[in-house]
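User: Structure with 6-chloroguanine, tokens only please.
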Amino acid sequence: MRIDIVSLFPDFVAQLAGHGVVGRALERGLLSLHGWNPRDYAEGSYRRVDDRPFGGGPGMVMLVDPLRACLAAARAADPAPARVSYLSPQGQRLTQARVRELAARERLILLCGRYEGIDERLVAAEVDEELSIGDYVLSGGELAAAVVIDAVARLQEGALNDAESAAQDSFGADAGDGPLLLDCPHYTRPVEHALGVVPSVLLSGNHAAIARWRRQQALGRTWLRRPDLIDRQALSAADRALLDA
Ligand code: 6GU
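Assistant:
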């Protein structure tokens, strides 16, 4: 998958590439990241990318033309067509279902705004979807883009190690089908500690019992902490039985 990021902060892309699952996905050739700076497409010696808002008020609004030229260059860098996703608090909330849909695309163009926003005419003409990562305000789209990139990178086939992938299947937090559940508790050595003992089922060697316990913990935690994530009617009969047990 190819991801193009349009941002006034080119260092941001380099930061992402150096670490963790995203870094590994890049190394393995599962993902490529390309940064595009609208300032490189701005005219004049000042290379102006923003101006004061009509109607007054604080802050600056990003100009249409540098962004339009920058987006055109990003699009043209690869023959595959790409939708433009604008990261903004006005967007639809990002969910794991949406992440799965984004991860399946061949290309993404992520548009990061700064300051008070982007001239609405650019948004209307060039943006295919607006995405928000939650109901709070960030000073720019870059952190939101990083969230999208991380979430999408780890779903690329081969991005995770075996152990990480295993945690994703049937009883994991993101089974891929069914509800997104909160994770179950995890323990490591020592078995006995002043702060408590490890649940005995995890030491039993009974893999079916362990899987059942983890699924039950995940369901129970989700039910208690994030009831909005579970539609009881949509659970499998097996999950309902675990939740009721
Ligand atoms: Cl995508 N951008 C900004 N600036 N703020 C946000 C956001 C995005 N999602 C939540 N808050």
